[in-house]
Amino acid sequence: MSWLQSNVNGELYTSVLEEEYKETLKYYGLQSSDMIFQQDNASIHCASAPSKWFQKNKVKLLSWPAYSPDLNPIENAWAMLKKREQMTRPPPSVIEADQAFFDRVSKLWYDLATPEN
């Protein structure tokens, strides 16, 4: 999970892909050729920079209907994270709140992969 403190555009999305995608493959001992990458059709995902990055890195993309959050399993994960996050209290300062929020959501994100959750 990455904490992006600015608006995301195609270039920033591409830099996140460059770092996180490759690190994720390495962590799990996978090759890009073993994977099919799924993303929605948000404009940043379809921008020139990420499209070129996917081609350059030979990443296979899953064809995705224009608007289909019901088919996207990540939407259920985000809904679960949002619900769990809303049950916690924010710390007193904005800076602490930002960091605490990121820490809580990161933990919840990784907890989703644990079968007993």
Report the strand count: 2
The profile of the biggest β sheet is: 2 strands, parallel
Please give the radius of gyration in angstroms: 16 Å
Q: Order of strands side by side in the largest beta sheet?
A: 1-2
> How large is the count of helical segments?
5
Q: For the terminal residues, how far apart are their CA atoms? A: 18 Å
Low-pLDDT stretches: none
Architecture overview:
- It is a single chain.
- With about 120 residues, the chain is mostly helical.
- The chain folds into 2 domains: about 1-65, no CATH class; about 70-115, no CATH class.
- The protein is built from 5 helices and 2 strands.
- The chain has helices spanning about 10-30, 45, 50-55, 75-85, 95-110, and strands at about 35, 60.
- It has a two-stranded parallel ribbon.
- Helix 1 (about 10-30) runs parallel beside helix 3 and helix 4 (about 75-85) crosses helix 5 (about 95-110).
- The chain is globular and about 45 Å long.
What's the SSE blueprint?
Blueprint: H1 10-28, E1 36-37, H2 43-46, H3 48-56, E2 60-61, H4 73-86, H5 94-111
Parallel strand pairs: 1-2
Helix pairs in contact: 1-3, 4-5
GO molecular function: nucleic acid binding
InterPro entries: RNaseH_sf, Tc1-like_DDE_dom
Protein name: Tc1-like transposase DDE domain-containing protein
Give a brief description:
Helices cover 55% and strands 3% of the residues. The chain is built from 5 helices and 2 strands; from the N terminus they run H-E-H-H-E-H-H. Strands 1-2 form a two-stranded parallel ribbon.
